[in-house]
Design a protein that fits this description.
The complex is a heterodimer of chains A (93) and B (515).
Chain A: H1 19-32, H2 56-67, H3 84-92
Chain B: H1 13-19, H2 22-38, H3 44-56, H4 61-76, H5 81-90, H6 99-124, H7 133-150, H8 155-180, H9 190-193, H10 212-218, H11 223-255, H12 260-269, H13 280-288, H14 295-326, H15 344-351, H16 353-370, H17 376-399, H18 401-415, H19 417-448, H20 451-458, H21 462-487, H22 498-508
Classes of the chains: A mainly alpha (93), B mainly alpha (515).
Chain lengths: 93, 515
């Protein structure tokens, strides 16, 4: 029996540690706005006003490209993008 | 150190602690009530009383919110009843019309329609027409407007149907948010959602602040959060008062309008320091009549109009959001430092946030998730055009009941041609602006790994840095110029022709198409 590492790209999303990749894309979006303040994984970024609803599309495209999520076939709720933890939960559903 | 006109009191732990005590809460409410009065709200005592009840019983906030909103609805019934009376006169039933009864029936009927449609969408759970419940809702509303306009109805029935549609039209997007929230987690029961259907804190057909799911996320959960929320509410209202004073001064200086302020200034100085600028409409009429104002005067009237609208929208939105915050909901501002915008898309986001959010939620996301999924740039541009162009025009088309009633759905559509051009120009500019930003972001992420390191490497190129600085410095000017010119196509009366608007824009740019 082989043990897969949580960061191995062949490991299914529900078993991988997805937060570093998600943190990176959120960091890039915040940096682009000139917002250099650190953020926590549970911090509400949309309702807190640090990210805008239009930024959600960057996150959508990231999840589509990097994780193969197809939002045309599953319910879309912008609330799922409010924090890094929520995005991870979305990927692991 | 940043200079603040309104001190950041919410950052002082002693103030926050005091605001959680009964005396602190009472003082905050008193201060807020006084400021509301100063802002010109004649209903400030009633509003403050409602806020006091909500502050005293935070555990029952949602049911109290429903009660407060229904009370406000009965008290003000702020719909276009003058239009209903005009319809009744045109239909020859004005004599027999009991307006009070009709108001009650149409408000009750509209709320019942909302509840019925919501229950249907919930029961069918994405089956049949309820696969797209918001789209179906808009189609049903338009079909009903067609019936009210074109069907051979007797005068009484037509008047009643229009009255129902005029009221229901104001609830359209509130119901829309309820339908979007059907898939959200922990959505409250529909009866509780009614608390923010045209809520007591004010607003328009655009829901402030969005739907039930959004409201749940920003609700103050404990005493400290409520204190912070209310302190920020007081601060925002204080800022609205400052902007109100600036707005009054500006109206006096630009147009000579100012009521009491104008009288005081004139009495003191012996003259009125005003540019006495004409309205944009007057400048357009003068051009159409063949006696155009000078280019400088036309530009000045356009710029003055832009500043007036910006100040008025800021004050209006701040008062609503401040009251919402006092009720215990940490809503984001509707207008947030628009002149600090770095692009057209950024300005649009900062100018009228909740309207932009409505367009994003109802038009941008659906278009983005469904179309051109393999063409990222086209996908983004199409979704932006769907929201800022089509969605924007559709929202106003459905909102302007007067135009719908007086010209019928088809005539209203023709009257909206110039607004459609407005939407297309806005959508195109926002799309371009977003594409530019995305390209810049992709460039920095691609070449340097992170935006932070890219920013460091960018400083090593003096030419790029100089260009960036110049572009940043000029951004507010170019953005304001764009929105000034765009404003020409936003005629709230829907009576100006597209040709006269285009002629005016061309004359501003130095080309006079009239012989």
């Amino acid at each position: 029996m082989t043990t897969r590492h949580r960061n191995d790209p062949h490991t299914p999303d529900r078993e991988r540690d997805l937060r570093p990749g998600l943190r990176l894309i959120v960091r890039q979006l915040l940096d682009a706005k000139g917002d250099r303040t650190p953020f926590g994984d549970d911090e509400p970024l949309l309702t807190g006003g640090r990210l805008e609803s239009v930024d959600v599309i960057e996150l959508v495209m990231h999840l589509e490209q990097a994780h193969g999520v197809d939002f045309s076939t599953r319910a879309f709720d912008p609330d799922d993008f409010d924090s890094v933890a929520r995005m991870e939960a979305l990927l692991q559903r | 150190m940043r200079l603040r006109i309104i001190p950041a009191v919410e950052q002082d732990a002693r103030v926050v602690a005091f605001a959680q005590r009964p005396l602190g809460k009472a003082l905050l409410l008193l201060l807020f009530g006084l400021m509301l009065s100063a802002s010109g709200r004649t209903d400030a005592p009633q509003l403050t009383a409602v806020l006091a009840v909500l502050t005293a019983f935070p555990a029952h906030r949602r049911p109290l919110l429903v009660a407060a909103t229904l009370y406000w609805l009965v008290r003000t019934a702020g719909f276009d009843w003058a239009l209903v009376q005009r319809i009744a006169q045109q239909q020859g039933v004005a004599e027999s019309l009991d307006l009070g009864r009709l108001q009650l029936v149409s408000i009750g009927g509209a709320l019942l329609c909302c509840a019925g449609y919501y229950a249907l969408a919930r029961a069918l759970a994405a089956r049949g027409a309820m696969r797209h419940p918001v789209l179906s809702l808009l189609v049903v509303y338009l079909a009903a407007a067609c019936v009210a306009s074109y069907a051979p109805l007797d005068g009484g029935t037509r008047t009643m149907l229009w009255a129902l549609l005029i009221v229901f039209g104001q609830y359209l997007w509130f119901l829309g948010y309820s339908l979007l929230d059907l898939s959200a987690r922990q959505t409250p029961a529909f009866a509780l959602q009614l608390g923010h259907y045209l809520p007591f804190w004010g607003g328009s057909a655009t829901p402030f602040p969005k739907g039930a799911a959004a409201l749940r996320k920003i609700e103050a959960r404990d005493g400290r959060a409520l204190a912070l929320c209310q302190l920020k509410g007081c601060k925002l209202l204080a800022w609205a008062l400052v902007l109100s004073a600036v707005s009054a001064t500006w109206e006096l200086f630009a147009y000579g309008r100012g009521g009491v302020l104008a009288d005081i200034v004139e009495a003191r100085l012996g003259w009125l320091p005003t540019l006495a600028l004409p309205q944009v409409g007057a400048a357009m009429d003068a051009l159409a009549a063949g006696h155009p104002f000078g280019g400088a005067l036309s530009w000045a009237s356009l710029l003055a109009d832009f500043i007036s609208k910006l100040l008025a929208l800021s004050v209006w939105g701040h008062v609503i959001v401040a009251t919402c915050r006092m009720a215990g909901f940490a809503a984001l501002r509707n207008t947030y430092r628009p002149l600090a915008a770095r692009s057209i898309a950024d300005f649009w986001n900062r100018y009228y946030y909740y309207f932009k959010e409505l367009l994003v939620d109802f038009f941008f996301y659906p278009a983005f998730l469904r179309f051109f999924r393999t063409h990222p740039r086209l996908r983004r541009a199409f979704a932006t055009l769907a929201a800022a162009g089509f969605g924007n025009a559709l929202y106003h088309y459905l909102r302007d009941a007067e135009v719908l009633v007086e010209r019928g759905p088809w005539g209203a559509l023709l009257a909206f041609r110039s607004y459609l051009v407005y939407g297309l120009l806005l959508g195109g500019a926002v799309a371009l602006s977003q594409l530019r930003a995305a390209r810049a972001q992709a460039g920095t992420a691609g070449t340097a790994g992170t935006a932070a390191t890219a920013a460091t490497s960018a400083t090593s190129s003096p030419t790029a840095s100089w260009r960036d600085e110049l572009s940043r410095a000029l951004a507010p000017v170019t953005i304001c110029l764009f929105f000034c010119l765009l404003g020409v196509f936003d005629d709230p009366t829907r009576t100006r022709s597209l040709g006269s608007q285009c002629s005016f824009v061309l004359s501003l740019l130095g080309w006079n198409p009239t012989p």
